[in-house]
Amino acid sequence: MTTPAADETTWPRTCPHCGTELQSHTTGFTPAATAEDANTQGVSGAVVAEDFCPNPECPAREENSPGSLGGDNGGG
Q1: What's the burial of 61, exposed, middle or buried (CB within 10 Å: 0-12/13-18/19+)?
Q2: Which of 2, 49, 56, 69 has a CB 3.0–4.6 Å from the CB of 75, allowing a cystine?
Q3: Widest CA span of the chain, in angstroms?
Q4: Rounded Cα–Cα distance for residues 30 and 28 (Å)
Q5: CA distance 59 to 55
Q6: How far is residue 42's CA from residue 32's CA, in Å, rounded to a whole number?
């Protein structure tokens, strides 16, 4: 078993675009790979979370907003 290097465990706490402190929300749950995992290892799954910038004026928000000219909304 290996342990991650120190830099792999560091998680950003501020938005790289505007410096605002990030917030987090859950986006789902991934169940254990097999029922055996849940029974033998006590692992029923993992919560999936996502960090986001709550700043309404963040430059990144404009890049990813609906109606922008990028992303999957038909823009070019």
Answers
A1: middle
A2: 69
A3: 50
A4: 7
A5: 9
A6: 9
H/E stretch holding 62: helix 59-64
Residues 6, 12, 14: CA angle, nearest 5 degrees = 150
Helix or strand holding residue 24 (H, E): strand 23-31
Is the separation of the CB atoms in 37 and 21 below 8 Å?
no
Which range among 16-25, 31-40, 44-53 shows the weakest confidence by mean pLDDT? Answer: 31-40
Q: What CA–CA distances, in Å, run from 57 to 1, 18, 29, 41, 66?
A: 44, 9, 30, 45, 15
- Which amino acid type is present at position 36? E
d(CA 44, CA 3): 22
pLDDT by residue (tens digit) across 43-59? Answer: 677 788 899 999 999 99
Contact (CB, 8 A) for 56 and 22: no
